[in-house]
Amino acid sequence: MIGTAEELMGSSSGMRAQIVWFSLAGVAQGGVFAALLPLLRALLSGDSAGALPWLGLAAGCAVVSAALLWHAADTGYVVGIERMADRLARRIGEHVVRLPLGWFTAGRAGRLARLTSTSVQDVMGIPSTLLQQIVMAIATPVTVIVVTLFVDWRMGLAFVVTAPVALAAFAWVSRVLRDTQGPEDRMHAEVTDRVVEFAQAQQVLRAAGRTEEGWATLDRALAEHRDAYLHKLDRGGRPFGVYVLVVEAGFAAVMILGTYLALGGTLRVPDAVAVLILAARFVEPLIQAGDLGGTFRVARIALDAIGEVLHAKPLPTVSNGPVPADATVELDDVTFGYGERPVLSGLTLRCPPGTVTALVGPSGAGKTTVTRLVARFWDVDSGAVRIGGVDVRELPTADLMARLALVFQDVYLFDGTIEENVRLGRPGATDAEVRRAAEAARLDEVVARLGWDTKVGEGGSRLSGGERQRVSIARALLKDAPIVLLDEATAALDAENEAAVGAAVAELARDRTVLVIAHRLSTVAAADQIAVLDGGRIAELGTHAELLARGGRYARFWNERQRAAGWRLAAT
What we know:
Helix content is 65%, strand content 10%. It is elongated. Helix 4 runs antiparallel to helix 6 (126-151) and helix 16 runs parallel beside helix 17 (495-509). The strands form 2 sheets. A 6-stranded mixed β-sheet has the order 6-7-8-3-9-10, with helices on both faces. A 4-stranded antiparallel β-sheet has the order 2-1-4-5, with helices on one face. The protein is built from 20 helices and 10 strands.
């Protein structure tokens, strides 16, 4: 475990020094019991003066053990918090920002949140708590065995025989817990996701009158988690009971042997009493060690979860690269898929600088994938994506992102003020520049009503969809990147917001290279070129007039949208 933790940290953890301190504390604690034998001999023989040195030795060992434990525990908190937790959290943060944007799915985002909270906390307790319990559970019994061998080799041999049997039983308990802890942890994560989903979906569930069905999904997850937990208790309880039985049986055997030897006169009564006390001290940490299996497994799973993220491969990056000649966006014979089946197959598209290219096509045609490949959410399977003649794989990540402004359908705002969210586009912008961007994005109307210092809520929950879009466009305008990747999601907006967002999009597209997944007919018709995607390829490419004249897929798409635009709800 220590090796794994230090590999993930990329530095020494200090846990090996902790093991030394806890071992010394365990030996000192064993020294208390080592002094018990001569102390009892002196007391039972009436030699009070002779007992005092041994009493002093026992007290001294107790003080030394307590001091060592205090020092080791105090150091353990420093190691756990300042070294391990802090270092792991920083390494996770440093690594995550290097992972491709496509890595951040909804499920992984939830796991990452649990990772930086629960998992790091579990690892933090290793040097201060878990190591102490494990090392003390070993060091003290070993000291007891050594002391007993000096008292009576037969009694010492009884301890020596009991120890490996107890260790074998402990290993069995650990294996069983390892096999059951994983499924229980996965079900715990599933329950957490379902609870969050249930809370967030209350508006949808109540509007649809399906609160019972929504609860049923959570109820199933809770029932499955309960079953997994009971299964873990059932499977782990029996081995743990056997383990305790083995340890207690060994203790009973030692007591019987000690009593037999004392009654037979081959073991003096003070020695027999001392050995029986040592036997009791021998058993206690072994039984406590049985409880450590679950704690150890939790820490192991936490390290595995952290390792899963830290071992995720970032996209290859370069520190320096050629400077793109202009804002041309080009996809050259691109093939890409999320699995075995390609989404794009041999797609070629060129977007000249300062032009608007509208992407249209049926759902699943690959429109969103095209924009995300330009932003290098992933690398293509074959072919190339270029900006200004330079392959995006040859551009440093910072240089690539500096040239792109992304306005996608799922707008996410941080739980700060409206102004703070706009300033993310360019933190060093002046107040006048922020105001101009807001005005161009038609965000000034929202600000006039709410104020710049209004908190937008988590994800922008306190703003409407149209208001969130305006903040996102203002942010992109403030960034002033030469290339804009836009998912023009206005279908769910009311007429006022649709008009405002449409005007903001037009302002954003001015003098920039724009690749837009177009939903509004006016955007499609006004584009410099329209790319019709079908089957992962460009089925048609041209201007609105050219494509209508061909009478192909685009013409059918346009006619269908025109007819749909005239639909009205009517009461009969």
